[in-house]
Design a protein that fits this description.
By secondary structure, the protein is an alpha/beta fold. Strands 2-8-7-6-5-3-4 form a 7-stranded mixed β-sheet, with helices on both faces. Strands 9-12-11 form a 3-stranded antiparallel β-sheet. It has a two-stranded parallel sheet with strand order 1-10. Helix 5 packs parallel to helix 12, helix 6 packs parallel to helix 7 and helix 6 crosses helix 11. 46% of the residues are buried. The structure holds pyridoxal-5'-phosphate. The site of pyridoxal-5'-phosphate has 13 residues, from helix 6.
């Protein structure tokens, strides 16, 4: 069988994730510390796990309604109103998905035609670009700048818009940089977008994890409500990565189309996870706050430590990532990550795994224990000192 003639050329051309090889390397090492994986080190809070367990005990092991249990959709609407003051109807504006990941995929599949452009901000979460391409769209990259703390500016946005622009995907608080957009930052972006027929996909999966004021959703602007599709989920704030549950909030017509793709591709999201998610949204605030407070403690320690080591790092105000520059070491992002892993057994991810704008940076997560972070900073310090020595000898 000649698969080369059979396979979809777009799928063939998609680059494998630049992160994979590091996970293979770390698996071979004892005593390694991973600052690599973007998932909470916390276990899902017990009361949420208990709700999942109870659902099994009660025999809730069947498919759910395709768009998710109504009780969960209603809980999502209540939560979003309470937290971000945005109103959605559980009847036709919410779709429960298999993580934010499915939501991102089906949004693009619902709106894109060949040749449509989607503005993607670099550095980006790894799935955005492939999902745009697999849906026949063309990513148009805006390379965000460290000197702007990796925020999007109105000037950058205006320059990227063409008559073919169908959508923009934004993600604040951001993976991989930890950047946020304040109300003032968003005001300028809204000015550019408010009169345009451009869909704004706002991936707000880290919305609960901010450390300097509350998250502001672009959907909360009346002039943007109609244009914005919000992606969110349970993986990060509630430490529920393995439960595979997320949701999308949008206007009824778009939900209707996404619903069809979801129905045929997925059928319905995991039932047990939906019961757990109802509990998470109704009663999870206290546990989320405990985790957020601990992330913040680690964030402040790590930010100070990296700058003291000489790896210049702006202060990330959200998510659970640091994105320090490693240019002072004279190494490329890849050389830094590989050298650090081999010599000091600490895993960080090269910044260019998140697009070219990440060149010269690495991503380090603080979703690991404080003790691990303290030890990792010692090892990174030693490694960077070794680089200085090597540079001096040149
Ligand atoms: C920015 C961003 N969006 C979406 C996701 C997908 O999360 P999930 O599918 O677990 O909800 C992730 C996971 O790392 C992420 O970082």
């Amino acid at each position: 069988m000649n698969y080369e003639g059979i396979l979809n050329p777009v799928a063939k051309d998609i680059k494998p994730s630049g992160i994979r090889k590091y996970f293979d390397l770390i698996n071979e090492l004892d005593d390694a510390i991973s600052l690599g994986i973007g998932e909470p080190d916390f276990v899902t809070p017990w009361h949420i796990r208990q709700a999942g367990i109870e659902s099994l005990e009660l025999g809730h092991t069947h498919y759910s309604p395709n768009s998710g249990f109504r009780e969960l959709r209603a809980e999502i609407c209540k939560y979003v109103k309470r937290k971000y003051n945005i109103s959605y109807s559980p009847d036709n504006q919410v779709l429960v998905t298999v993580g934010g990941s499915e939501a991102i995929d089906i949004i693009f599949r619902s709106i894109l035609c060949p040749g449509d452009e989607v503005i993607v901000l670099e550095p980006y979460f790894v799935s955005y670009r492939p999902c745009v391409e697999l849906s026949g769209g063309t990513p148009v990259i805006i390379a965000l700048k460290a000197e702007n703390d990796f925020k999007l500016t109105a000037e950058e946005l205006s320059a990227a818009i063409t008559p073919k622009t169908k959508a923009i995907i934004i993600n604040f608080p951001n993976n991989p940089t930890g950047a946020i957009m304040t109300k003032k930052d968003l005001d300028a972006i809204v000015e550019v977008l408010k009169d345009k027929d451009i869909v704004v996909i706002s991936d707000e999966i880290y919305a609960e994890l901010t450390y300097d004021g509350k998250h502001v959703s672009i959907a909360s602007y009346p002039e943007m409500y109609d244009k914005t599709v919000v992606v969110n989920g349970y993986s990060k704030a509630f430490a529920m990565t393995g439960w595979r549950l997320g949701y999308v909030l949008a206007q009824p017509r778009l939900i209707e189309i996404m619903f069809k793709i979801h129905q045929y591709a997925i059928m319905s999201s995991p039932t047990m996870a939906q019961f757990a998610a109802i509990e998470a949204m109704a009663n999870g605030d206290e546990e989320v706050e405990k985790m957020r407070t601990e992330y913040d403690r680690r964030r402040r320690y790590m930010h100070k430590a990296l700058n003291e080591i000489g790896l210049k790092c702006f202060e990330p105000k959200g998510a659970f990532y640091m994105f320090p520059s490693i240019q002072s070491t004279g190494l490329s992002s890849d050389e830094f990550a590989e050298g650090l892993l081999k010599k000091e057994k600490v895993l960080v991810i090269p910044g260019d795994a998140f697009g070219d704008a990440g060149t010269g940076f690495v991503r380090a997560t603080y979703a690991t224990s404080f003790e691990n972070i303290v030890e990792a900073m010692k090892r990174i310090k030693r490694f960077v000192k070794g680089c200085e020595g090597a540079n001096d000898r040149v």
